[in-house]
């Protein structure tokens, strides 16, 4: 079981080539994801892998956004035994939609899928992306961006 005692309420136990060298060249990996009640695995991408998720316990809202120009949000609530696929490199997320814990297992089409957590990349880069660039991109003020960084 992964630790879910964090602000997002989720934890991942990956099995990639980093944890299991025998996966090298096989093009597969997997992970167990545990979710506290209402916990989220926030929007992220895997630049080198498609992901297939199976719910083992509980209920999860899952979704992804298709690529630009359409940017269509596709989502569904899954229950125990349900399966969902996240296409390679598309932004996706999961959220526990219950007052009980949830567990999922994921398989990925790469021994080294990578993960790019969107909020961490945008608001936690080092050095920072300047506030005026982010304010313009998100069509908000520098103050809002500063507040997000402060609370991040």
TrEMBL record:
Chief location bin: secreted
Pfam families referenced in this protein's UniProt entry, alphabetically: Cupin_1 (PF00190)
Protein residues bound to oxalate: 41, 46, 51
UniProt keywords, alphabetically: Apoplast, Disulfide bond, Manganese, Metal-binding, Secreted
Organism of origin: Ambrosia artemisiifolia (Common ragweed)
Protein name: Germin-like protein
GO molecular function, one term: manganese ion binding
A GO cellular component entry from the record: apoplast
């Amino acid at each position: 079981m992964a630790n879910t005692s964090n602000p997002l309420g989720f934890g991942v136990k990956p099995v990639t080539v980093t944890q299991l060298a025998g996966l090298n060249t096989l093009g597969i990996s997997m992970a167990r994801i545990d979710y506290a009640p209402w916990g989220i695995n926030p929007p992220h991408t895997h630049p080198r892998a498609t992901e297939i998720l199976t719910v083992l316990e509980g209920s999860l809202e899952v979704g992804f956004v298709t690529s630009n120009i359409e940017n269509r949000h596709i989502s569904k609530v899954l229950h125990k035994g349900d399966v969902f696929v996240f296409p390679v490199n598309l932004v996706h997320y999961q959220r526990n939609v219950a007052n009980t814990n949830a567990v999922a297992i994921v398989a990925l089409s790469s021994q080294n899928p990578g993960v790019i957590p969107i909020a961490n990349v945008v608001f936690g880069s080092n050095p920072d992306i300047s506030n005026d660039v982010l304010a313009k991109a998100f069509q908000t003020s520098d103050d809002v961006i500063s507040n997000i960084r402060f609370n991040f």
